[in-house]
Amino acid sequence: MSIVKNVQENPVEEFLRTDRLPHVWCSGCGIGTTVNCFARAVRKCGIPLEKLAVVSGIGCTGRVAGYLKLDSFHTTHGRAIPFATGLKLGNPELSVVVYSGDGDIAAIGGNHLINAARRNVDITVIMINNFTYAMTGGQVTPTAPLDSINTTAPYGAYEMPFNLPHLVASCGAVYVARWTAYHVVQLTKAMVEAMNKKGFSFIEIVSPCPTIFLRRNRLGDAVDELKFFKERSVIKHGADTSEVGWNETRPKEIIIGKFVDIEKPDYVEAMNVHLSNKLGEKYIWWGKKDG
Amino acid sequence: MAEIRYTTADPKGVLTGVHYMDGNHAACEGALAGGCRFTAGYPITPSSEVVERYSARIPTVGGVFIQMEDEIASSICLQGGVWAGHKAMTVTSGPGISLMMEHVGLAACLETPCVFVNVQRGGPSTGLPTLPGQADMQQCRWGSHGDYEVIALAPSTVQESFDFIIDAFNLAEIYRVPVFFQLDECVGHMTEKLVIPEADKIQVVERRYTSKPPEEYLPFKPDPDLVPELVKAGDGYRFHVTGLTHDEKGYPVINAQAQHEMCWKLVNKIDQNASKIWRYEEDEVEGAEVVVLSYGISARVALRAIEMAKERGIKVGRMRLIVVWPFPEPRVKELASQVKAIVVPELNIRGQIAREVERAVEGTCKVVRVPHAGGTVHDPEQIFDAIMEGVR
Amino acid sequence: MVTTEKQRKKKFRGVVHVLPERCKGCRFCVEFCPTGAITMSEEFNSKGFHYPELTNPDKCTGCELCGMYCPDFAIYGYRERIEEGE
């Protein structure tokens, strides 16, 4: 690590709306940790700050947009991805990050998730999975593990949850990873990679919700949960995503890592190449022409 | 203050010439002439031709078309396009507008300039996909939850489908508001002569961007005309906007005081500028016994009924709404004091605009509704009978 | 800041700054500091949370894991060279 001198201010402060701190998240909420990682990733990624835009949906994670000192949009429930698609298509020079929760992205936003992945829209989706709709009091989500207690599954969930890395990879995403809020160093690195990656990047971050999910399921506090992530996580880069599902509340193994990292033309590139092939000189190239 | 600046249309989007095309195609050409360079849409009869033509034209004009996975995605994707710096629209019909309503509210709350085209068809529900209706008129104003105001226009001819959609985009830019373009299916699928002038004859309003530096700029601080100055993503302003009730900084503020300030601002922005937005066409209202007030396709059908009444010696005037919302209450009230009756034919059962007339008139004159469930246009006889009832 | 003997010998020290008012007492920093240099203070901030303190500065390597874990941006650290005569 580098040796500096007398650092007066936390180096991530310049990326935060410090006039709005302390934030709304609970004591021990993992969202704040992931935002900390994101701020460090923003610092490292080399993307000019004015070109970075963040779009959030609704929920605890949806509040992230409001604390980042970037062009940021707090939109409607489940629809951050189509808004982000509009931003990116409207100005292909922007780097657009969607930062939202499991219910927002995988339930109400599911259709948009799979279509944006299919189109390989060049955005980065950071999805915090705390297994619940925390902001509204803890209802069950499509990622809630079997038997977990949620307010609309008071006797335990009996629906099979999504295996989101598998879903998103099968739709054609070029970068798919899962980390936990414990793995701060790897997570920051993954965020840098994802933001610099051309195409649809998806990072699932499993995170503790101590106030609601952990308490209702008697899983201890946030520190206990992060230790659980530490003990049970197995890093398997390039793993077969069909095998990484998190189905039980306390699985024996949590498979994390970078599962997919491939190259493919993104939406704008595919559109430009195709239309210029068909229309020749008459086609007006959209965005900057590389090289 | 971000001045309202007009400029001439970008010639790349203007198909100058004399054409023979239908209203849907004309609306597409009008959008392109008006500077629309971003469209997100989803197929739905009877509107699909607008985006079909757009998807064929935009690659050589320069811009974006994306067919999204549903109307909900389209209605917010276009807003991303706006915040990236473009004039944007979506095109749909009744069932699609119903799906889009949450995002109409988002556009109103974030004060996003944009155009929602509703090629109106028979409803409710799946209704009559290929046949006309005018039963979405109240929906466009009140459809989303909460307090806000929008603007809505209704063309009656193919030429107007071109001309008025340019006005729709201009109004959206002037007032930073979602604007509805209520293009009746009949007009959308009717083929008529369309004259598209040279680009330098078409006036478009430039986006009212701020000239303030980032340290001074506040996303929702209104100018004297109650419209805040706009920015776009990527220019270094590092601003935040939210659909939560917010203050001038754009930050969410969850209390009654902020709610009061924000909601009154959204409503007053249109209310207090209404006199600049009203637009209607009048004919022979001086000395008239009866005035037929209508809009869209029904206004054209009414012409025949008016002719028939004039043949009987009745003095009939005509008022045609071009801007339906805001509704020109003072003018209608004024007319009411001069005439025996106002006849309101429209393709809906509950008098969606007739009830606005009734409210404005407050009993000063008779208001005769001419309801119709849609599926076809009025028989002029029905409107004629209403005129005769008006003079009784 | 007082420089300890040990730090003077190594010619560098880890430094940790805490913003007590931001802390919500989650104890991530205490738990995940690899050397146990941080403990929670007996004091409370105005919201009633205990906040962390670098009670064993000799043990701090300036790795900044405390800063990386903090969900509330209430703590950050760095490694600092010790000049001659400090």
Notable characteristics:
heterotrimer, A: 291 residues, Rossmann fold, eight-stranded mixed beta sheet, 9 helices, 9 strands, globular, C: 86 residues, alpha+beta, Alpha-Beta Plaits, two-stranded antiparallel sheet, two-stranded antiparallel ribbon, 3 helices, elongated
Secondary structure layout:
The complex is a heterotrimer of chains A (291), B (392) and C (86).
Chain A: E1 3-4, H1 30-44, E2 52-56, E3 71-74, H2 80-90, E4 95-101, H3 102-108, H4 110-119, E5 123-129, H5 164-171, E6 175-180, H6 184-196, E7 201-206, H7 210-216, H8 222-232, E8 233-235, E9 254-261, H9 267-279
Helix pairs in contact in A: 1-6, 3-4, 4-5
Chain B: E1 6-8, E2 17-22, H1 23-33, E3 36-41, H2 48-61, E4 64-67, H3 71-83, E5 87-92, H4 94-110, E6 114-118, H5 137-142, E7 151-153, H6 158-175, E8 178-182, H7 185-188, E9 191-196, E10 203-205, E11 240-242, H8 256-271, H9 274-277, E12 280-283, E13 290-295, H10 296-311, E14 316-321, E15 323-325, H11 329-336, E16 341-345, H12 354-361, E17 366-370, H13 380-391
Parallel strand pairs in B: 3-4, 3-5, 5-6, 6-8, 7-8, 13-14, 13-16, 16-17
Antiparallel strand pairs in B: 1-10, 2-9, 7-15, 12-14
Helix pairs in contact in B: 1-2, 1-6, 3-4, 10-13, 11-12
Chain C: H1 5-10, E1 12-18, H2 28-32, E2 38-44, E3 50-54, H3 65-69, E4 75-81
What's the short version?
The complex is a heterotrimer of chains A (291), B (392) and C (86). Chain B is α/β, with parallel strands linked by helices. Chain B has 13 helices and 17 strands.
Query: What name does the CATH topology of the largest domain in chain B carry?
Result: Rossmann fold
Q: What order do the SSEs of chain B take from the amino end to the carboxyl end, as H and E?
A: EEHEHEHEHEHEHEHEEEHHEEHEEHEHEH
In DSSP terms (H or I, runs of 4 or more residues), the helix count of chain B works out at 13
CATH architectural grouping of the largest domain in chain B: 3-Layer(aba) Sandwich
Q: Reading side by side through the largest sheet of chain A, how are the strands ordered?
A: 3-2-4-5-7-6-9-8
Count the E strands of chain B: 17
CATH homologous superfamily name of the largest domain in chain B?
Thiamin diphosphate (ThDP)-binding fold, Pyr/PP domains
Strand order of the largest sheet of chain B: 4-3-5-6-8-7-15
- Count of DSSP E strands of chain A? 9
The biggest sheet of chain B, with number of strands, parallel, antiparallel or mixed sense and barrel status, is:
7 strands, mixed
Major sheet details of chain A: 8 strands, mixed
